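Postdoc handover notes: sequence design on the structure in folder B. Input tokens:
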């Protein structure tokens, strides 16, 4: 079993990225993070990468005169680092379709709710948890899914429930959900490392050990 060669895409603080690194260090995940890519030069995830001497790259549409050059820069970065799996961890931009095509069924995202509920455009960060609470849901959760051209729609790989407690605010619910995110992402990536994830007719199957 060759370790996965991950590219982590992150726009923000990078706590999921850190949890992935912790899982690798603890021997729970057979992977290496080869590169971190961000659209946001201020992203905490870039600092985490630099502290660990992991290549940290800012790639932003605004840096390029042509869209084509932007996409080529992303593809070239992934190729240079021989990336086998793309991991979105709080990446706030849409992944170009060229990348999705090139890495078919090899781009993952984590969403802080139980998809297909509370997903789609505008459903990020506290908006998700506000909507869950406004609906009076008793449970929320986490979804890890493959990425296709539509926000939050690709085949679901893993889900886990998180309870909504009396008196929850978006902040308290987000914090509880985040703890589960930190567990489930590394566990799901390990399924890929073990070659146990199959995609057939748009649905994911997990092979038994
Ligand atoms: C997480 O809640 C994740 O589900 C969502 O964005 C957030 C990123 O948090 N896609 P972090 O940057 O990993 O701390």
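Designed sequence:
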């Amino acid at each position: 079993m060759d370790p996965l060669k991950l590219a982590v895409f992150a726009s923000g603080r990078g706590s999921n990225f850190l949890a992935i690194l912790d899982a690798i260090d603890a021997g729970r995940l057979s992977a290496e993070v080869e590169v971190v890519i961000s659209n946001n030069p201020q992203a905490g995830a870039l600092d985490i990468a630099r502290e660990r001497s992991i290549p940290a790259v800012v790639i932003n549409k605004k840096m390029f005169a042509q869209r084509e050059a932007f996409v080529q820069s992303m593809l070239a970065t992934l190729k240079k680092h021989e990336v086998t799996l793309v991991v979105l961890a709080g990446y706030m931009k849409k992944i170009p379709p060229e990348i999705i095509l090139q890495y078919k069924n090899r781009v993952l995202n984590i969403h802080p709710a139980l998809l297909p509920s509370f997903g789609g455009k505008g459903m990020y960060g506290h908006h998700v948890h506000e909507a869950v609470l406004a609906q009076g849901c008793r449970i929320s959760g986490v979804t890890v899914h493959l990425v296709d051209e539509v926000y939050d729609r690709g085949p679901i790989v893993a889900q886990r429930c998180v309870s909504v407690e009396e008196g929850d605010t978006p902040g308290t619910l987000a914090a509880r959900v985040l703890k589960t995110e930190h567990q489930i992402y590394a566990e799901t990536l390990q399924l890929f490392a073990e070659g146990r994830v199959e995609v057939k007719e748009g649905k994911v199957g997990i092979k038994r050990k």
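Context for whoever picks this up: The chain has two domains: 1-103, 109-209. Don't rerun without checking with the PI first.
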